[in-house]
User: What shape does this take?
Amino acid sequence: MRGIVLTIIVGLLLPQCFKDARIGILTWIWFGLMSPHRYTWGFSRNFPYAQFIALATLSGCLFHRRLKNLPMQREVILLLILWGLWTLTCFGAIHPADAWRKWAEVSKILLMVFLSLCLEWDRNWIKAMTAVTAFSVGFVGVKGALFGLRTGGEYMVLGPPGSFLEANTAVAVALDMVLPLFLILARDDQSSARLKMICYVTLALSGLSALLTYSRGGFLGLLVVGGFLLVKSRYKFLAAPAAVVALAFVLWFLPERWYGKMETIQEYEEDRSAMSRIVTWRVLWQFALEHPLTGGGFRLYSGALFDRYLFKALPADQAANWVGRWWDAHSIWFAMLAEHGFIGLFFYVLLFVSIFFSLRWLKAAARSHPSLYWMESYASLLTVSFCAFAVTGTFLDFAYFDLFFHLIGLVVVLKSLAMRQLAAADVTETVPDADAAVAGVPWRAQLKLPS
Assistant: This one.
């Protein structure tokens, strides 16, 4: 029955995706993050809904000819450079077939992100994109929290089988990243009281669900998100007591098994899972030193590769304990280094730096002009999302997470809209081009803002 209902919904949406590509992008995000077909049975479970959505969206764009030029902002240029590097490293990949399959998967995500940047977005559509992104992941969070409350938190929260969010660590990363989005929606003065309440409840349940994933990286990311959200709260005199009450409930509710798992963060030398990360990073570092320019391509990991570099990374007596074992990178930074060399890692880090500069510029621009006031929440809280990804990604291998790319697209859309509105208001002499923010000119001086 679920499959039939989902098929009917998608069937009704396809003509709308063809008519308006923005609906197609939102539908694509919904399927990419929530994977609703994985909650069904029968033919619909493996039916290629996403391909039909993408085809309808692309066909509509070509038919209606409503695409703008791709905005060549810093983030777009860096993504294009990374895409090119990832393509080049596939030609020399250690496992070419696996590398090209991964390249195709990442390329589909980037293609849809770039397509979204060629469309016209306004405040209402941006809010819709934020809501679809947040609640697609929030559905997993609410479902996981209710399951955890019913079972006393004794079991890991997992995503739908066969989806990108299947593993507990993936759910933790995604939930950490979307928590600030719920606060953005709740702060929006155009949101109804009912929507605001739904956002706050979903935020709280998703935070609990992130804890119940039993992911140590996700826990560290949640600490970062919680701290930032408390600091950025507009009503700290209410937020602080609420945080204390929530913390007291969590400390009382979480089972001993959860505390035992988190204690290994401090006692990592006695935990084989934590030590495997350190061993893997040392092995990948040695590999990168011998392949500094191109790395080994996507999905280079294998037992043979690890055994070859293991004794270069560790003393012989320690290396002998790890022979025949191998893991993924367990880190976005080491994944990028090993798979695409120091050049790939450089541009990947530069992408993060660019994002933070752009969000800082956006926040200053929002404060400088009344028509952009609503963007300040986006600029402030999206920074928290990217910080959460950087922290959790240090311990988890999600370098090509589609949510990360979608949020980059959201930043570019916000910048483009801000620059258009500033230009229309004839304040371009007061507010410089956003890409000048990294030139070393003090941002308050650029915007002539009061201290």
About this structure: The chain is about 70% helix and 0% strand.
